[in-house]
Design goal:
The chain has about 375 residues and is α+β, with helices and mostly antiparallel strands. The protein has a domain of about 50 residues. It is built from 9 helices and 17 strands. The chain starts with 18 loop residues before the first strand and ends with a helix.
């Protein structure tokens, strides 16, 4: 009889609030453990028990309810679903929100399933395509490409995968403020948002699937590239909806398995629904490259918009401050006579006499600035 396997305790941690057993997610690549507590707070720990950071969300002073969480397959981001119908993507190094995805505009919408998987396309190189042409290609190529044919035939693909971002200077950290979230206010969040292109991920597509209590399924790829929101394929009524509760997939197949449950007590039971993502197989092999570059362009446009917002706020501040100073002295001079700052300064230059109010303003207020 085989001996039972003895599991070794790596670390033990005492939490301040009870943990929800349904809100546990582990990232093997980053060796990080995400724990959702009863106080709607997400805690990220290392395997040795060291706390990395915590995350919670408030809207208008109200703490949002934590519903689901899942790690990205490579462990660089964690997706957290909240009760306001949004899924926020947070970097593994800090609690800054990198992306915010709205999965439902309806109030009191609950996220019933949150999955993040990867599809690895078995793409063909140019050499594979030409080799299928048979003897016609061999006769045309002759014997001049011996030893270097593989490298030469993959040249178009290698040129498309060239990443010039490593040769460019890094984007500067922006000060907090503006109308958007301060995702650009720290180096960690910037590095999480603008990661260098990895050629190993050229043939892989990250897919996020979100199921809601309204019976809809939200689909997005490459973190923030939204495909769309679709209703449940099963028939529903005003009193009965089919909600996605489980998801399963294989990295090499475009067909995903969905397990759905009816909200009606009369039509109970579970339903298995296969979902075929045809765009993964029908699209060209460069889908992952195009989508990843499009996502990077969207992030760069967000950065530029934030810079414009901060520049406008700074310019407005530079205009408001002098106007405020001039308004104060005009109001003071108006109380002691029919004077404004312009005639008072002209009077000082011509006669050499300075009004007491102007002298006090120049010495006490303007000199300090």
């Amino acid at each position: 009889m085989a001996k039972p396997v003895q599991l070794q305790v790596i670390a033990e941690k005492t939490l301040h609030s009870p943990a929800n057993p349904d809100l546990l997610a582990y990232s093997p690549s980053m060796e990080l453990l995400a724990i959702g507590g009863a106080d709607n707070n997400v805690l990220i720990y290392r395997l040795n028990g060291q706390r990395v950071f915590s995350a919670s969300q408030k809207v208008k002073g109200v703490v949002l309810e934590l519903q689901k969480l899942v790690w990205k397959p490579n462990g660089q981001l964690i997706a957290i679903a909240w009760s306001d119908g949004t899924v926020r993507l947070i970097g593994a190094e800090s609690n800054k929100t990198v992306h915010k995805i709205t999965v439902s505009e309806e109030e009191d919408t609950e996220v019933t399933c949150l999955a993040w998987t990867t599809y690895s396309a078995a793409s063909k190189s140019l050499g594979d395509i030409l080799s299928e042409a048979g003897s016609l290609w061999k006769d045309a190529a002759g014997g001049g490409l011996k030893g270097k044919s593989a490298q030469l035939l993959d040249l178009p693909r290698d040129l498309a995968a060239i990443d010039i971002e490593s040769s460019l200077p890094k984007l500067s950290v922006l000060p907090s403020g503006g109308t958007t979230e301060d995702i650009f206010s720290s180096r960690a969040s910037l590095d999480a948002l603008f990661r260098p292109f990895d050629p190993k991920d050229n043939d892989s597509i990250s897919i996020m699937i979100v199921g809601t209590s309204t019976g809809h399924i939200h689909l997005s790829i490459f973190d923030s590239f939204v495909i769309g929101t679709f209703p449940s394929p099963l028939k529903s009524s005003k009193t009965s909806r089919h909600q996605l509760i489980r998801h399963a997939s294989h990295p090499r197949h475009a067909v995903h398995g969905l397990l759905m449950k009816s909200t009606s007590t009369l039509v109970g039971g579970l339903f298995f629904v296969p979902m075929h993502l045809g765009f993964l197989t029908s699209s060209s092999s460069d889908l992952s490259l195009l989508a990843s570059r499009s996502s990077a362009l969207q992030n760069l446009l967000r950065y530029i918009h934030q810079v414009q917002t901060l520049m406008a706020a700074e310019y407005q501040a530079t205009q408001d401050l002098p106007s405020r100073f001039l308004g104060n002295i005009d109001e003071t001079l108006g109380e002691h006579g029919d004077w404004t700052i312009a005639p008072a300064l002209y009077h000082q230059v011509v006669t050499g006499h300075t009004l007491p109010e102007v002298k006090e303003w120049l010495v006490d207020e303007l000199a300090e600035r």
